[in-house]
Structures are given as structure tokens and as C-alpha cells.
Amino acid sequence: MATIRCRLPRLVLPQYCRYMALSSVSEGMQVFNRHVKQKQRDRAALDVQSSRTVEYLRSTIADRLIERLLLIARQHEILVDVGSGAGTVEQAIMGPREDPNDDGVMKSRVGKVIMTELSEKLLYRDADPVEFPFNTELDITRLHLDEEQLFTPSLLGAVTGEDGEYSEYKFENTVSTVISNMSMHWINNLPSLLAKIKFMLKPDGMFIASMIGGDSLFELRTALQQAELQTYDRIAPRLSPLADVSDVGGLMQKAGFNLITVDVDDIIVSFPDMMTLMRDIKDMGESNAVSNRPHYLSRELIKAAEKIYKDMHANEDGTLPATFRIIYMIGWKPSESQPKPLARGSADVNLKDVLGL
């Protein structure tokens, strides 16, 4: 059984495993195979019990996103959940809070919820209103679509309620809030998706998201790399490249968001052995989907990697830690109502006087 420990949020990270192509990736560049990612999520969702059991990470992060939303007193008339999975954000909206005074607050602030998900099987996995009451407690519309192609006729119809002629320009200024939980690290063209999200938001609309980034799973990554070097004298892309916090902040700025906040959590999950970690990753639908990924992991390589993992990273009790570095981001579409910095040179107090210099 996995156990979770957390570190305090940090704003600065070592620059390991940076996804350097993020700021310049083109429409034609396919780092990740989205068809493979859909199949991985489909297969995970088919094993209903296992996929629910390993949802601990996604559910934990969804709760933290909603805690952040609770700090911002505003209504979310239309909330689009990009890469929604089976509905962890929606369950977090309805779930009990640590402060009982916050129970029911998020539900009262949320109007229409539109869930979009690449895997149709995962999207509808928890759609039974009897087993999962959030389906009737919230006004939910589910849409099966690839978030890389976010602007689709089905989404436009769900947002505007119109059935007229489709045009991407009709998305402008239509949505009050966009949220994404643990999905954006599989997007090929992240700048394009961020630009679309900003375009569809109303002025002063809010975008809030989480994604796996930085040197997540560095313990597993280094163990596999060293084992492969020792065994085959080479290194293959066994794990996905990930964006770093500095990449994300820069991309948010380039997309035109205002009042950007980016922070980071380390969530450390302890596993009895390496294979349990890898099975959990598979059951989460988070297996490697890099286009040029190797398709085979030999028993010899697994055995060598397990030994290196234990030698380098094992806890005192013999369990193996796996670090998931979670990047949180918040940005706002520019609006005249937002606070603006004073003009340069307009201050009437000398800083030297304040500091006594």
C-alpha cells in the first residue's frame, strides 16, 4: 500500500529533466503519441477497481486546487475542466473540507461544469449518479475530446448553448473559469493550448491548473538510466520529458496571462518495491507515451534497476520513495478592472528614508 508524504511548496527548483522544446514546439512536432496516451487511459479505466485505487495522487492534487479556489471569492458561472479524467475535480468540489465552514462553499460558487477528456472510457467511469452523487449535485456536461484540439463544435455548443455555424472566433470571452488537473504534461503544443484557454476566458477570467513537472520520479529515472548504462551501454527514453517551473511561468507570460502565480509541491509516495510503483503508474494511465519510447523492459534491466533504486534511494524501513513534483499555476485574462502597477517614478516616499539608510 502506498503512503504519501509531502514537502512544503517551493518556488525554485534544480533544472533537471527540463522539457526544453516547450517554448518553441510547433503544431507539427509530436513529442507524445496522443493515440497511445488515449489507449493507456482506456485500458486503465477498464480495470475500474485498480484505476480508482491508484487515484490517490490525482485526488490529492484536485483537493489542493480547490483549496486554492476557495481563497478567491468569485463565481464560476461556466467552469471548463480540461483533461478531467473521471471527475476528481468535481468530487473535490463536493467533498468535505478540513474547515467545516468551507463545506458547500465551492458548490455554491460553481454553475455549469464542462468536463473534457481524451479517454471516453475514463470520462464515464464514475458517471453513475447513484454511486457518485456529484453527478447530480453539479450541473455537469461530459465531452469526449482531445484537449490538444480544444476548440471543437461540441465544446462550443456546451459553452454557448448554440447549434449555429461553427467558428473558433465564437469561443472568445465565453468562459469564466478553466481548470486542469494532472493532464497538461502530456500536451505536445502547450503554448497553443494556453493561448486557446486565454482566448476563451472572459476578461478577468481565471485559469488554474496542476501538472507533473521538474524532476518528478527522479529516483526511478536515475535507477533505470544507470541500469541501462551498465547493462546495455546506452540510455533510452524510459520516462517522459517534463516542463520545469521556469518553463511554465514563461509560457503563461507568452500566452498573455496577467497576475501569474506559479508554485511547486513535492509529494513523496513510498512503495514496497519498484514494480509496485511501475504498476501504479500504468494503472493511473500515466505510462510513457513519448513517440520514440522503447517498447520492452527486460527482466535483466528491471532487476538491475531495482538494486540501484534500493542502494541509492531506499528509506530506512526498506520502502522506495517516489517523488512527484507538482507545478501549480494561476493566471488571469487581462481586464481593466485588475490592479495595475503605478507608473515608474510616481512614488512620493523615498525608499532610503523608509529603510533608514
Radius of gyration: 22 Å
The CATH architecture can be named as 3-Layer(aba) Sandwich
Let me know the CATH homologous superfamily.
Vaccinia Virus protein VP39
Structural class: alpha/beta
Shape: globular
| Overall number of domains | 1
- Count of helices? 14
CATH hierarchy, class: Alpha Beta
Output mean pLDDT. Answer: 86
In angstroms, what separates the terminal alpha carbons?
A: 58 Å
Strands of the biggest beta sheet: in what spatial order? 1-7-8-6-5-2-3-4
- Fraction in helix: 25-40%
The name of the CATH topology is Rossmann fold
Total strand segments: 8
Stretches with pLDDT under 50, minimum 5 residues: 4-27
Strand content: 15-25%
The topology string of helices and strands comes to EHHHEHHEHHEHEHEHHEHHEH
Write the layout of secondary structure elements.
Blueprint: E1 3-6, H1 34-46, H2 48-53, H3 56-70, E2 76-82, H4 88-94, H5 105-109, E3 110-117, H6 120-123, H7 134-137, E4 139-144, H8 153-160, E5 175-181, H9 190-200, E6 201-212, H10 218-232, H11 245-255, E7 258-271, H12 274-283, H13 299-313, E8 320-332, H14 351-355
Parallel strand pairs: 2-3, 2-5, 3-4, 5-6
Antiparallel strand pairs: 1-7, 6-8, 7-8
Helix pairs in contact: 3-4, 9-11, 10-13
Account of the 3D structure:
It is a single chain. By secondary structure, this protein is an alpha/beta fold. The chain has one domain: Vaccinia Virus protein VP39 (Rossmann fold). It is built from 14 helices and eight strands. The protein has helices at residues 34-46, 48-53, 56-70, 88-94, 105-109, 120-123, 134-137, 153-160, 190-200, 218-232, 245-255, 274-283, 299-313, 351-355, and strands at 3-6, 76-82, 110-117, 139-144, 175-181, 201-212, 258-271, 320-332. The chain has an eight-stranded mixed β-sheet with strand order 1-7-8-6-5-2-3-4, sandwiched between helices. Strand 5 (175-181), helix 9 and strand 6 form a beta-alpha-beta unit. It is globular and about 65 Å long.
